[in-house]
User: What shape does this take?
Amino acid sequence: MSDTSNKKAFTVLYILLGVFIVGLIVSGIFAVREARALEAEAANNIPVEKILNDGIYIGGINVSEMNEAEARAAIAPRLETWYIDKDIAFKVGDNAFLYNIKAMGVTPNVDQAINDAFSYSETGIAPESYSLETTDDNGVNFPIQPIVTLDMLLAFLQTEEVQSTINISPDDAGVIFRPSEADESKRFSYQQPTPGYEVKVDEFSSMIYDAIVANDYSVMDAPYNEINSFTSIEDMQYKTQLIGTYTSRIQSRGAARISNIKRMSELINQNVSVIQPGDTISLNNDCGARTEETGFQDAPALNAGAHVNEVGGGVCQVSSTLYIAALTAELDIPARTHHTLVSEYIPAGLDSTISFKPDLKITNNKTSPIYISMVVDEKNYTVTCRIYGEPPAHGYTVEMLSKVYKTTIPYPSSYSYAEVSPGGTTIDPGEVYEYTAPAFGTRVKVYRLYKDATGKVVKSEFLYSENYDAFSGEYYVNPNAPE
Assistant: This one.
């Protein structure tokens, strides 16, 4: 190879080597630049902790220059009192109610308030949902808004507990009954019915929603439908008409006997003056035993035909008067016992004795309450029972009638010597004591009479027959000569 060729070869080789070296240098420069760029990008991607600006408040708490964790810790005490004074107070008619929004399921939206505060610190732009509140130190407050929905409020109002509280049932017309009142015009008084209220929950839930969102907790008037009562005063007056009555005369007028009659009447007025439909009263069970402890005295009475003194003597006149009144009111009588002798104060067949076992029971077979009044007139010596209720559909006046259809003669009286009667009565020397008076036997038929407005009997209903045995007189004589 010539020198010229060699020179050309070396020249090319040097050029190629130069190009290669330049390429390496350029590649190195670009590699360094790319590395620096990557380093810069990596540095920019390192998270920077967000800090709230100065003058930022959340829920009235100053959270200036705090991070999120610090801000949450600062407002935690505020959350404990957030529900205070957030009460939904409302009226339904004249009734007032109050429920805290916590009971309705409403909760504080803490996350939203914190996010909005940091967003404002970063951008200086308030969220559209906020009307910024300026604090005294020219800061900005982000109130903690409620999380509330219409469905939430409607579900609360529809719960059984709330429905049974805020919906008011109507009150029917009322009756005040004074069974002991002698003046019949004052025996009853009536109370006006009051309407009920049913809250319109769909409409009211919207009102509550608007109030909570507006932070307006003033008293509201809940919308409602008025519910009328089922009865009126006219209904009550119609169902408290006189449907049965009877008056007996007090023949034996000893003070103790009259006292017992008054006491028994008082107990009836106190304990059994109102009988609900289907209920049965028992004078023995409901009025109790006749004892000195219950206010009764020792007085003349009949016991197995004998004249004796016993505690409660005279009460059978009250039970008999009530019995006849119940018959005229067409009530059911599940239990009743007649005396062994015809009573002087009650027609034969219409008496009703009460003692330790004999009882008088009366059942209200009507569809509305029955009211019983017993009044003793000491001036005129009468016992009157009046029974009130819904008048019968037949519209007639009802009276009782007993007809004696047979009598029997007693055996001759007997006389015995004794200083004390079998009933314990001391017999004075030379005295003839009548222990049992002679009495004719009596057979009686009892009828219920129906009379029209003119007093004409339009119907006669046979009820039962009664049998009173004849009693021979039984006398005791103290054989000792009077002093």
Remarks:
- The chain has a mean pLDDT of 90.
